[in-house]
Amino acid sequence: MRVLPGSAGPVRRRRFAKTLVIGAALVTVGLAYTVLVPRSATGADGPQSDQIEAGRRLFAVGCSSCHGLHAEGGTNGSGRIAGPSLIGVGAAAVDFQVSTGRMPAAQTKAQIPQKPPVYTEEEIAQLAAYVASLAPGPAIPSSDEYDVSKVTQADIVRGGELFRTNCTACHNFAGRGGALPNGRYAPSLMGTTPRNMYQAMLTGPQEMPVFSDSVMLPEDKRAIIAYIVALQQANDPGGFGLGRLGPVSEGLWGWLIGIGLLVVVAVWIGAKVPRIRRRD
């Protein structure tokens, strides 16, 4: 095969130009990655990474026996689920469950009750950061999202309407909770903080449905929280609240006291009336 004189030079130049373009593209991508990534994620040796690593160690000691070493979920000896997968539940779910003492649970029941928390606030933040690093999920809300210090009376009224529409079937019209099937129950909201209320609506713990931002707007969640806070601070104008359980408790006391007093009075009257002896 004959090679024309002078033809090898242009071919080498074209190959060199392609190599130069590819190299420039790789350098550009590398520079862009270097510039942009530190703004959206902390480096491998940053504070966020240290918090995640601390959370991973806490999780391995206190949570992995039920939820699996990598939060993939676990089963007990009989094959029943000991703890669900936590991948994708987000930091908000961890913060709610652990800060209310529901997790870690001593044993699995139909309903995990609230109790004093086992971990400190710093340790809870570490556990939440670790679980959040596994997959995207609802983040811990900022204080602005559940702050009700500046709500108006109209917001409280609207929150009451939303609460009666969406929540009273389980939590009672006064937020005192109620029984559910199969040994479950909706807890009272009288001791719940606004932060945990928001996180419960955001994550749907246990039997509660999830009220995501696409289902219920953040301002509507804040209005519901404002209404519950107003219930927590409300006095009982009638004297005794009777648990604010509605007509059941009121009717029970009506029967016990009202009918009881009538029976006592009837017996007293019968004892005072002189007996008439029959004559033969």
Automatic annotation (TrEMBL):
Chain positions recorded as heme c 1 binding sites: 63, 66-67
Top-rank taxon, per record: Bacteria
Posttranslational modification: Binds 2 heme c groups covalently per subunit.
Keyword Coiled coil on entry: no
Keyword presence, Transport: yes
Membrane topology annotation: Multi-pass membrane protein
Binding site for heme c 2: 167, 170-171
Record field: transmembrane: 252-271
PROSITE patterns per record: CYTC
Chief location of this protein within or outside the cell: membrane
One Pfam family cited in the UniProt record for this chain: Cytochrom_C
UniProt keyword terms in alphabetical order: Cell membrane, Electron transport, Heme, Iron, Membrane, Metal-binding, Repeat, Respiratory chain, Translocase, Transmembrane, Transmembrane helix, Transport
MF annotations from Gene Ontology: heme binding; iron ion binding; quinol-cytochrome-c reductase activity
Domain Cytochrome c: from-to ranges: 50-135, 154-232
Catalysed conversion reaction: a quinol + 2 Fe(III)-[cytochrome c](out) = a quinone + 2 Fe(II)-[cytochrome c](out) + 2 H(+)(out)
EC number(s) given by UniProt: 7.1.1.8
UniProt subcellular location: Cell membrane
InterPro entries linked to this entry: bc1_cytC-su (IPR009152), Cyt_c-like_dom (IPR009056), Cyt_c-like_dom_sf (IPR036909), Cytochrome_c_Oxidase_Subunit (IPR050597)
A GO-annotated cellular component: plasma membrane
Subunit and partners: The cytochrome bc1 complex is composed of a cytochrome b (QcrB), the Rieske iron-sulfur protein (QcrA) and a diheme cytochrome c (QcrC) subunit.
Descriptive protein name: Cytochrome bc1 complex cytochrome c subunit
Taxonomy of the source species: Bacteria, Bacillati, Actinomycetota, Actinomycetes, Propionibacteriales
